[in-house]
What we know:
With 298 residues, the chain is mostly helical.
Amino acid sequence: MAAQTRRPAAKDRPAGDRQAGPKSPQAAGTPGQQGFSERDRQDIEERRHLRAPMIYEVLRREGEEEMSRPISSLWWSGVAAGLSISFSLLSQAILQDHLPDRSWRPLVSDLGYPVGFLISVLGRQQLFTENTITVVLPVAASPTLANLRRLSRMWAIVLSANIAGTLFAALFCCLTPVLHPDILAVMLDISRHSMEGSPLDLFFRAITGGFLIAAMVWLLPSARSAEFLVITMMTYLIAVGGFAHVIAGSFEAFMLAVSGQIDVWRVALVAAPVLLGNIVGGTVLFTLISHAQVAPEM
């Protein structure tokens, strides 16, 4: 009979062969992370949803940075945004001109409306309705006279620059042969339709428009690679819902004024209630509520 091999005692076995005792919590890792490398854990952390206070802080810091920019930078960025927004109406007109006259046509042609916003927002251009949340958050966090002056300066520069951009775009579209006559006619038709209603109607439609733009800005920090979809979804809802946006609306009003279809004074009559409505929806309703929900955690 073969001799039975003796199992070495624990003290005789090499240290690496001894049976390890229970692992400490640090060695085992946190629940759900066993088997993940350090790089894997970093990727998991990066993909966690941002909490509301974190989104608030991201936007507040952006607002601080924007209010500190030179006047010339804000002005030309605002002019660029006004020019970019003109492509919303142009894209709508091109789609509508190529679609049959059916009840569903606006649902498809309004997909062109987000184009101008995509250019402006992804291009980091200064659009006034975005500023109803980003530059207001620093003021809400620290409502000093100095911050209020910085806010007023920012709004005045960006709004006037946006309006200058939309006016130039309207002059270019109406006074040069850049557009096919059929496309120009559709652009004017869409513009007339968007201006229907009393100033009070426009004001309330603009409240919803301002709220949706502010919501879009709030969603972008956690959107990551889905920024395109967030911007498209929120601005498409403005168009298909018949809501109002002061910068896009100013381009439509300027188109009608330059082409001689409305008096110039009507541009201000349309823009004023829409401007107030966007501020109420974007600043008073969305921004201040957003500040209130995170204030106890800041």
